[in-house]
Design goal:
137 residues, 3 helices, 5-stranded mixed sheet, elongated, alpha/beta, Nucleotidyltransferase, domain 5
């Protein structure tokens, strides 16, 4: 009688690769969701604009004219100092992050203009105002 040869254990990799791919896709979508919604929710003024590319520093002006940087309330002088430090720590002029001012529709114009003037006095000229993208009626 011939001896039967015992088959070795076979490991199927296809289901493992499918699961790993789904986990990778989940983390990629999670990262995109976290990076897109930085800052505080404000009622933006309506206007057509162009989207800023690259790194950004978002300064928020709340309806009561309070200034925030990354969700932290700061005085105007502290905010300008921090923004200047962030810009100075960047290597080249092309790599410096753009400054985005996200001002609530109810905030006073004077707060935005005085902030813009102080940033310009520090040599920061690449400043944009964030808008909702739809023209106001």
């Amino acid at each position: 009688m011939a001896a039967r040869r015992r088959k070795g254990v076979r490991l199927e990799l296809t289901p493992l690769l499918d699961v790993m791919f789904l986990v990778l896709v989940f983390f990629i979508y999670s990262i995109f969701d976290m990076t897109m919604h930085r800052g505080v929710k404000v009622d933006l003024p309506g206007a057509k604009g162009v989207e800023e590319k690259g790194d950004r520093v978002v300064v928020t002006i709340l309806p009561d004219d309070t200034l925030q940087l990354d969700g932290v309330t700061l005085s105007r002088a502290e905010l300008v100092n921090r923004v200047s430090a962030i810009r100075a720590s960047s290597a080249g002029a092309e790599e410096r992050p753009a400054i985005i001012v996200s001002g609530d529709r109810s905030a006073s114009l004077g707060t935005g203009v005085s902030l813009l003037a102080e940033l310009k006095a520090r040599g920061i000229t690449r400043v944009s105002f964030q808008v909702s993208g739809a023209a106001e009626p």
